[in-house]
UniProtKB/TrEMBL annotation:
Protein's recorded name: Cysteine-rich secretory family protein
Gene3D superfamilies the UniProt entry points to: CAP
Pfam families, A to Z: CAP
Region (Disordered): 146-186
Source organism of the structure: Bradyrhizobium stylosanthis
Keywords on record: Signal
Domain SCP intervals: 28-137
Span of the signal peptide: 1-22
Length: 195
C-alpha cells in the first residue's frame, strides 16, 4: 500500500513539474537567443506535444533519430508555422546540460537561433531500462496572424476550409431539393405525397 501511495505521489510531482520544466526551458532558450540578437520564445502546447511524441518514439526505439516518427515536416505541420526546426539529444537528465550540448554544436545552435522564432516545445522521455533520457525540442516561427490570410476573397488561406465545407455540403443538399416537387404544383402534401 505504501508503494502505491509513493508511486502516486511521485507521478503527481512529475506531472506538476512538466509545465515548469517547459517554462524554464523556454526561458533558458530565450536568454540564449536574446544574447545573440533574436527574440524571446514562449512555450507552445502544440510544439510540446510534437516534441513529446518525438522523445517518446526515440525512447521506445532506443534510437536517436529525427525520423523516429516519420519526416519532420509532416510531424510539425499541425503547428501551422512558416518555419520550424528540431533538436534532439540523449544522455543528460536535465535540460540545462542538454541545452549546453546544443549550444556547443553549430547545427543545433543554428536551430536555437532560428530567425523570427516565437514558440518552442521541449520534452524528454526515458528508454525502457530507464538508463537513457531522450530530448526533443521544436522551435518555430513565421506564424501567419489569425484573420490575415494571403490575398483576398475566396483565395484567402483562412477562408479555404469554409469553402471546402460549403462545397461538400452543396452536393448533399442538392439532391434533396431536386427531389422535392415545386410548392406551386402541390396543393396538399400527405405522407410525403404531393396531391
Amino acid at each position: 500500500m505504501h508503494r502505491v501511495v509513493g508511486a502516486l505521489v511521485a507521478s503527481l510531482l512529475l506531472l506538476s513539474a512538466a509545465p515548469a520544466m517547459a517554462d524554464s526551458a523556454a526561458e533558458l532558450i530565450s536568454s540564449f537567443r536574446l544574447k545573440h540578437g533574436e527574440v524571446r520564445v514562449v512555450r507552445d502546447s502544440t510544439l510540446d506535444r510534437i516534441a513529446m511524441d518525438q522523445a517518446r518514439a526515440m525512447a521506445a526505439k532506443d534510437d536517436l533519430s529525427h525520423d523516429a516518427l516519420g519526416p519532420f515536416n509532416r510531424r510539425v505541420a499541425p503547428a501551422g508555422a512558416g518555419r520550424a526546426a528540431e533538436n534532439i539529444a540523449y544522455g543528460y537528465d536535465n535540460f540545462e546540460k542538454t541545452l549546453g550540448q546544443w549550444i556547443d554544436s553549430s547545427g543545433h545552435r543554428k536551430n536555437l537561433l532560428l530567425h523570427n522564432a516565437s514558440r518552442v516545445g521541449v520534452a524528454s522521455a526515458r528508454n525502457a531500462s530507464g538508463k537513457r533520457t531522450y530530448w526533443a525540442m521544436v522551435i518555430a516561427g513565421d506564424y501567419e496572424p489569425k484573420g490575415k490570410g494571403k490575398g483576398k476573397g475566396k483565395g484567402n488561406k483562412d477562408a479555404e476550409p469554409l469553402v471546402a465545407v460549403k462545397r461538400e455540403a452543396a452536393p448533399a443538399s442538392k439532391p434533396k431539393s431536386e427531389s422535392k416537387p415545386k410548392s406551386s404544383s402541390c396543393h396538399i402534401k400527405l405522407l410525403s405525397l404531393c396531391i
